[in-house]
Amino acid sequence: MTSGYLSRILLTLLLVGAALWATYQILTRLAARYDSADTSLIWAALVPLIATTFVGPIGWQWPTATAWILMALISAIGAAANYAFIKALDYAEASAVQPYSYTLLLWATLLGMVMFGDIPDGWTILGAAIVVASGLYTWHHDRRIV
Question: Residue 105's closest CA among 76, 85, 133, 141?
Fold first, then answer.
């Protein structure tokens, strides 16, 4: 495979991931009208569990004790973060919660730098700045209207 082909696949996956994240936020906000945060959390855990049950066995290797501990820790932190996000969307509009999600850009950048030595280039910083500025503008605009 050529480098250009892999780049297109990666970009497509990133766009699909962003679209799915936005869809998840919208559906979570809509579900908050009818379901409790506990119900939303269970569904948010159950659907991926079922989906990965079909592809997980393909390359399955039994985890070590350390891997089990790390998976449990990651799962607990992820569940707590997901629950906090669901509760935030339960109490506020997505446009008010979204600016806090922009800290993900910072954390992902720092993690990439520390773990992989990946320093973002100017285009990446510019793109992140545009995304954050657009979100903050929307948030500010929504606050003025209310």
Answer: 133
